[in-house]
Amino acid sequence: MPIRIPSDLPAQSELHKENIFVMDTCRAATQDIRPMEVGILNLMPNKMETELQFLRLLSNTSLQVNIDLIRIDNQAPKNTPKAHMDNFYVQFDDIAYKQYDGLIVTGAPLAHLDYHDVKYWDKMQVIMDWARKNVQSTLFSCWAAHAAMFHYFGKFRGLREQKLSGIYQHFVQNEHDELLRGFDPAFFAPQSRYGEISLEDYNSVEELNVLATSKEGGAYIVASQDKRLVFVTGHPEYDPDSLKQEYQRDIQAGGEPVLPVNYFEQDDPSKKPMVSWRAHGSLLFTNWLNYYVYQTTPYDLTQLSE
């Protein structure tokens, strides 16, 4: 079964073009099964681009998945039409009564702000506390992964002098964990961040397992032993040209960004990016949905808060 999304969500037409099977709400209503309930708390400015990236990864599963697109506040994002937000997103306060099988919290371009200076930090703390009681497994991406490590375990994030940007080789550290089932021992994944939490800090938390690392960026995938928290410091959801767009944007803003490593053919930004991460990115989210969500979640989601 595919992901279930609104019939008129713009992402649906793009997914169809990519030969990805999605089901609209009308067709899904005819199937007598209990679908997975997954929320995406989208913190990125360009909501439409980010929602498409994550929907693509969630579509490669035999499960039927209902998707709620969630916004953290009612402030209009700069890079997304207000009509899109009004039609397809729900306020967190309006779904706080619900329980979810899975929740994804995206990254956000907030690397140089202290957490307490983030305008919605208070609400983020409320959501993270709510998720511990009302979500079977929550996957935090990039900035959200560091923010969750600070909130749950008090681990501070440092900042790198140069942005970690490019496609890096990562190595499986626990081949028997179900989240990495089917992974090659070494695989590639995009990174785009200034934030850094040391491997020592991750390893110091007894209930966490570091599952995959890179030499350049340290921890990449970390999960709690009960499978209810997953931290992904990179961007397996990125499109082929996402790092290119970030690089060009930083140049246009007057900066001198580092060239994303292992990304452009012959390290020439006029050439096409080399795509080497999408298979493992898709496998990561398929494994998360199957082994961390579907295989562990109660049939009656109200039991989560008991």
UniProtKB/TrEMBL annotation:
Which positions are annotated as binding substrate? K163, S192, R249
Reaction(s) catalysed (UniProt annotation): L-homoserine + succinyl-CoA = O-succinyl-L-homoserine + CoA
Keyword Hydrolase assigned to the entry: answer is no
Could you list this entry's UniProt keywords, alphabetically sorted: Acyltransferase, Amino-acid biosynthesis, Cytoplasm, Methionine biosynthesis, Transferase
| Chief localization | cytoplasm
- Identify the Gene3D superfamilies for this entry: 3.40.50.880
Q: Which GO terms describe its molecular function?
A: homoserine O-succinyltransferase activity
List locations, semicolon-separated: Cytoplasm
Positions of the catalytic residues: C142, H235, E237
Q: Which InterPro entries match?
A: Class_I_gatase-like (IPR029062), HST_MetA (IPR005697), MetA_family (IPR033752)
Q: Where is this site: Important for acyl-CoA specificity?
A: A111
Keyword Acyltransferase set for record: yes
Pathway it belongs to? Amino-acid biosynthesis; L-methionine biosynthesis via de novo pathway; O-succinyl-L-homoserine from L-homoserine: step 1/1
Q: Name one Pfam family in it.
A: HTS
Provide the top EC class.
transferase
**EC?**
2.3.1.46
Q: Which SUPFAM superfamilies match?
A: Class I glutamine amidotransferase-like
What residues correspond to the site Important for substrate specificity?
Answer: S192
Q: Which family does it belong to?
A: Belongs to the MetA family.
Q: What does this protein do?
A: Transfers a succinyl group from succinyl-CoA to L-homoserine, forming succinyl-L-homoserine.
**PANTHER family, alphabetically?**
HOMOSERINE O-SUCCINYLTRANSFERASE
Q: What is this protein called?
A: Homoserine O-succinyltransferase
Q: Which organism is it from?
A: Paraglaciecola algarum
Gene of this entry: metA
